[in-house]
Amino acid sequence: MKKVFAGCALGLFAVGAGADEITYREHIRPLWLDRCERCHGSDAPYLGDFEEDRKRYEADDKGPRMDTYADLAFFASWPDTGALMRRLDDGSNTANGKPGNMYRELGRSEEERQANLKLFKRWVGKKAWTMKRPAEISKEELLRFKLAY
Prior knowledge:
Layout: H1 2-12, H2 24-35, H3 37-40, H4 47-52, H5 54-59, H6 69-76, H7 83-88, H8 110-124, H9 139-142
Helix pairs in contact: 2-8
């Protein structure tokens, strides 16, 4: 079953972008460089290493590496489905209304955070923005992801 989901997720990344579509290269990458690169750049650990020594990396102000399209997509669609959304969400999609732990990093003001969150949501796909974890998501839900390069 995991192979089916992985295949579906990889197929999603090959889809081209329309003129008004949010793309990784044009929209998300520059935003990521400005707001996320310091902690999630090329000197950050891959997820497995981060999970093995979380306290040390957090003390160094480092989170899991997300410095490429593939690494960032890993945390959105598959295999770590919803991780990006759970961390960036403003609380409007959570049961307790609490924002994700990285929401505050999306901007210097609430207005900037909301604008940047909107970009991420459009990149992921409004119908794909989910708080679900990998075991909770269906093939049909995975097919909603846009993640245009």
